[in-house]
Specification:
Layout: H1 2-40, H2 69-76, H3 79-90, H4 100-109, H5 116-120, H6 130-167
Helix pairs in contact: 3-4
């Protein structure tokens, strides 16, 4: 029985040594990957780390200096053209509002604002057709989420391609 216990102890020691080597190897690989990512995508300042690209919050569609009325007018010419561009990127608008102030806020926020009605009253309290409107709103939300996922996937693929190119 003592021999069996000694053999079991030796086996456990070898397993612990193997586990330690495995964790060390994984840690070294993680550090190497982190270095590669930092080379490809420079580190963000501390105040912008919370707004990283992979967060759930939508990102602005244009740089902040291009989200002002004057810059948008120069870029699109008309509010209708800017609105059409937004619908192509974000999906159908919750309202057909085409004022420059509204469009500036959408370009700056990266998403359509929530309808005030949807925020104030629960769906069950609305009048006739609430189910159809709810399903339509869910379909629009799903479309926007899928588009956002596709954008994030494209960003990840671009970063990975840059990493692979820099390794070659």
């Amino acid at each position: 029985m003592g021999d069996l216990s000694d053999r079991f102890g030796a086996l456990m020691a070898r397993m612990a040594k193997g586990d330690a080597e495995l964790f060390r190897t994984v840690g070294e690989q993680n550090a190497a990957i982190r270095e590669l990512v930092e080379e490809v995508a420079p580190a963000l300042p501390a105040e912008t780390k919370t707004a990283a690209a992979l967060q759930a919050a939508p990102q602005p569609l244009l740089p902040p200096e291009q989200c002002h009325q004057k810059a948008l007018k120069a870029r699109f010419g008309s509010a209708a053209a800017a609105h059409t561009h937004l619908e192509a990127i974000l999906g159908p608008a919750p309202s057909k509002k085409k004022t420059w102030d509204y469009l500036c806020s959408v370009f700056a926020s990266g998403s359509w604002p929530a309808a005030a009605q949807a925020l104030t009253r629960p769906a069950a309290g609305r009048g006739g057709g609430a189910g159809a409107r709810g399903e339509e709103a869910l379909a629009q939300l799903e479309t926007r989420l899928l588009q956002r996922i596709d954008q994030l996937e494209d960003r990840l693929i671009a970063v990975l391609e840059k990493m692979l190119q820099s390794n070659s």
